[in-house]
Give the backbone structure.
Amino acid sequence: MEDRELFLLAKGTKSLAGAARRAAEEQLVERTAQVIAKVSKIATVRVGSDGAYVVTVYGHQRRIPNGWGIRVADDQKGIVFYDPAAPEANNIRIANPNAKNPNGYIVRTEGGQRMDASGHMGNAAGQAAYHIDAATPPPQHWWD
């Protein structure tokens, strides 16, 4: 399913009520999980009664911020969680393993700038300091 179809499915759930809305939301979550499973080699999405979570193959779990969307990365080599109000400026990307990052990596962008594991902001595209090894627990403050 394409990103646009997921967006339209999500948008359509807002006009429904009660059991119909719950069923549509469950379908959206299932379809989103299917898309992520096809693309991401290191993360899945789990939905609980208290919200949606990203879970890495390394056993790390973080709650996805309320209201954020999920899409396939532009290069088709990972997934991106994003703030719909500013999708390019506020997002978290979980990238698949590559030659430089054999465990995959996680990048947090806030206000258009990348954030390192300590919460320091910068804007040096591609700098290793902003690529957090996916085998380490993602900083909790990235997800709050």
Q: What stands out?
A: Strands lie at 43-48, 51-56, 61-63, 69-72, 78-82, 91-95, 105-110, 113-115, 121-122, 132-133. Residues 1-9 have pLDDT under 50 and may be disordered. Helices lie at 3-13, 18-39. The chain has one domain: 3-142.
